[in-house]
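User: Here's a chain of 203 residues. Predict its fold as tokens.
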Amino acid sequence: PFQVALCIYLLYNELGIALFMSFAVIFAGFPALLAASVGFGTFIKAKLVFTDARVKLFKEVVNGIRIIKYYAWEEPFSQKLEAYRSSEIVQMKYVYRAWLLLESVMRGLPVAMPIAVFYTYVKLGNDLTYSTIFTSLVLFIGMTEPLQALTGLATTIVSTKVGIERMLELFNCEMRTEYVIKKSVNDESMCNNSVIFDNASFA
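Assistant: Prediction complete.
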């Protein structure tokens, strides 16, 4: 923040009110940044739904591989896995498109800002000299380097937010009710019976 503030102060001394055109460029690109960030998080959540379903089904296949081979159910399970994988790949494409939009806007802003500022500076009747150009470009580079780091920071924050939400969803799940009650061998109800069914129904 100190580096950005210092660069803004020096640029203002160099270019005057034309510098405020750079803030207009940032505000113009903000909706695209916001849309890309929201889309990135939304598509990651959608991808994780299919990932969880695929991993769960794959685990069931591995655990029941003998039954699957015995009844020749390889093809149906393979089709289900392929369907989950295809849906997951579709969501991954959307994730990378959102990331590409975010990266493009963040990389494009440092290029658009000096152009807009220099154009405004000239339109205000000022002479754009070589010393002004090179000095301003150096200061713009010093100001935009921290801003470009926001791309990685934004994706990290979104990914962390999604992970925390999944953990909270797991922690807030209701405890499963015990449907098998273990009793001591010395219990009177277990004297003549090994297994007791109470209010049970059988299909």
